[in-house]
Design brief:
Elements: E1 25-26, H1 30-43, H2 50-65, E2 66-67, H3 72-93, H4 110-115, E3 123-125, E4 129-130, E5 134-139, H5 145-158, E6 173-177, H6 182-192, E7 201-205, H7 215-225, E8 230-234, H8 247-262, E9 266-272, H9 295-298, E10 302-311, E11 314-324, E12 333-338, E13 344-350, H10 357-372, H11 378-383, H12 389-401, E14 405-409, H13 425-430, E15 436-440
Parallel strand pairs: 1-2, 5-9, 5-10, 6-7, 6-8, 8-9
Antiparallel strand pairs: 3-4, 10-11, 11-12, 12-13, 14-15
């Protein structure tokens, strides 16, 4: 590529960098000279041409003038550093040519809002992600997030159904992977898809790309150049230098993502979960387990969570839709991880969760109370096989809250006409007069006032 000396439009600017466009630059001075040269190139170009004309001119100068040439990684580090400085300078001096003139849009009236035509919802991936939105794929480490991400990128680029089930709208894809070396990505791609010829996916791999002013604008310019409409980041934690637990700082990261949305692009990013709580009988919502500030959950439009599981000796990925703004979420579903010939991710249908221990205890309690037609204590229910004491008390509390079961203190029932189960004498001697007894609401006797629950100590 021929290097042209441009005429700077900025008066009072040091143009000595142009002296280095001809002649050799040797070791010991290459970095300093390269900094001046790229500063000159970027200063004379609109931001949307930095990633194209700016980078190509800088690369050509390096090959032509540097003896020996700087490595591409060294060149990229210098380029990115100076691009950030130049971008901030333009913001301060009001020269931001990417955004054009600042304009204040007057507030619209309610009538204008009601009469404004709403755009038709366009699905990028049917029932999962809509076009022009920010979306999250979360999961624990080694639970299939990257496999899912690469599969989706391929299917979107080809316009084929994700998991062979969810239709896609064909789009070009920009992949920014700051976690995995290129050879790992290459191997996974070749396992997922045999025909990778002319696939409209572009890659930035381990280039220390951050969601910052200047860098985001260059990514947007590059996407426009190559007609790409989806950008995928793997993963969130490595594409910014902000404090992940700070709502203020994470909002700044998502404000950078919003720049892609303003251009009509779709953003997808992966994110890790915090460790699961070990509390027995406690199931935490995956969305609440997303590591860091709650902003990471509130800003995305869509969110799915991946969890590896095994059934009948086969590996599956359980996918739960944690969030979908403006539409009904679908039920969790299973994707089979078939590695018999390459890697295939196949939709296996809705996931039927196994009944939790507390749920089982609730059903057993109802069955026993129906059969006995009387008031029973916790000890009676344990004897009837309704579960261990802790699980049983949790189940009883839930049933009382649901108004399926009512409770009274035993001493209030001793002289009543209501049926009290004639329990085993050993159990009866253990009961205190203030012990709680339980009965189904529909089987209870007496007026409504008397049937109200006393203070319950579960």
């Amino acid at each position: 590529m021929e290097i042209k000396k441009t005429n700077s439009t900025n008066s009072g600017i040091d143009n000595s960098w142009k002296d280095y466009l001809d002649g050799d630059v040797f070791e010991g001075e290459r970095n300093n000279v390269a900094t001046k040269v790229i500063g000159g190139f970027l200063r004379d170009l609109p931001i949307d041409e930095w990633a194209t004309k700016g980078w190509l001119s800088f690369s050509a100068w390096n090959k032509q003038c540097c003896k020996p040439s700087l490595s591409e990684s060294e060149l990229r580090t210098i380029f990115d550093s100076i691009a950030k400085i130049e971008y901030k300078r333009r913001q301060i001096e009001g020269e931001n040519r990417y955004f054009g003139q600042d304009k204040w849009t007057p507030a619209m009236t309610t009538n204008d809002l009601i009469n404004k035509e709403s755009p038709k919802r366009k699905w990028l991936v049917d029932q999962l992600f809509t076009e022009g939105t920010i979306n999250q794929i979360s999961g624990d480490s080694n639970n299939g997030k990257t496999w899912i991400l690469l599969h989706k990128a391929i299917q979107i680029a080809k316009g084929k159904a994700v998991f062979g089930h969810f239709a896609t709208t064909q789009k070009g894809v920009m992949m920014v992977n700051e976690e995995d070396p290129f050879y790992d990505i290459k191997e996974r791609l070749q396992l997922l898809e045999k025909d990778l010829n002319n696939l409209p996916i572009r890659w930035h791999i381990l280039e220390d790309i951050k969601l910052e002013d200047g860098i985001v604008e260059m990514l947007i310019a590059e996407m426009k150049k190559y007609n790409l409409e989806v950008v995928i980041f793997d993963s969130l934690s490595v594409i910014h230098d902000k404090e992940e637990n700070s709502a203020k700082e994470m909002n700044q990261v998502f404000d950078q993502m919003k720049k892609f949305i303003t251009e009509g692009f779709t953003v997808i990013f992966t994110h890790h979960l915090r460790k699961k709580k070990s509390q027995r009988g406690f199931v935490e919502d995956p969305q609440q387990r997303s590591r860091g500030s709650s902003v990471i959950n509130t800003r995305p439009h869509g969110h799915i969570n991946c969890e590896e599981c095994f059934q009948n000796g086969h590996k599956y990925i359980l996918i739960e839709q944690c969030k979908l703004k403006g539409d009904k979420k679908i039920n969790p579903f299973l994707v089979k991880f078939d590695d018999s010939d390459g890697i295939k991710l196949i939709y296996e249908g809705t996931f039927l969760a196994p009944m939790h221990a507390t749920d089982k205890a609730e059903q057993k309690i109802i069955d026993v109370l129906k059969a006995k037609q009387s008031w029973l204590s916790v000890e009676d229910l344990i004897t009837e096989g309704c579960g261990v004491e802790k699980t049983l008390r949790n189940a009883l509390k839930a049933l009382v809250n649901k108004k399926c079961v009512k409770t009274r203190v035993w001493k209030l029932l001793e002289n009543s006409s209501e049926s009290v189960f004639h329990r085993d004498k050993k159990i009866e001697t253990k009961l205190q007069h203030n012990a709680n007894l339980y009965s189904l609401v529909e089987d209870a006797h007496g007026d409504d006032k008397d049937s109200q629950s006393e203070d319950i100590k579960l």
